[in-house]
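Why does residue order matter? Because the sequence determines the fold. Keep that principle in mind as you read this record.
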Amino acid sequence: MSFEIIKTHPDSPEAKNLIEELSHSLYAITGDDGKSSFNSQVFDLPGSSFIVLRKSGVDLACGSIWPISDDVCEIKRMYSKKPGQGFGWIVLRELEKLALEFGYKEIWLSTRKINKQAVDFYLNNNYLICESYGKYKQSSKSICLSKKLRN
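Structure:
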């Protein structure tokens, strides 16, 4: 059976389970579960999307985008149950595709510097270190990355 991309709301059962797993994982790596940087109500706005990657009825990975401006969206809550299996790559490509469909020209994100696996994942997928933005300007623990999108 092939992979299925499900567009859903982060408050849906499948999304909630993955988000909770991500929160536990982030806490173990960084000492912060990341919940304060995520607002599920944003997904009621145009230009936002939350997706779950499923195979054979098993939810494997998730991720989302939401607007920062008309031209820029932010990736939030990227998670794969099994890093190194390509699930994160599939979700990232789908988020980039959705961002283009919404008309965004660039994607931004922030992660903790100590989360080397995430930093390396984005760098290996052509994201570049950029100037800190928003609440991350005040954080010495975060690293911000961006990618310009092409049609």
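Helices lie at 13-30, 87-102, 116-124.
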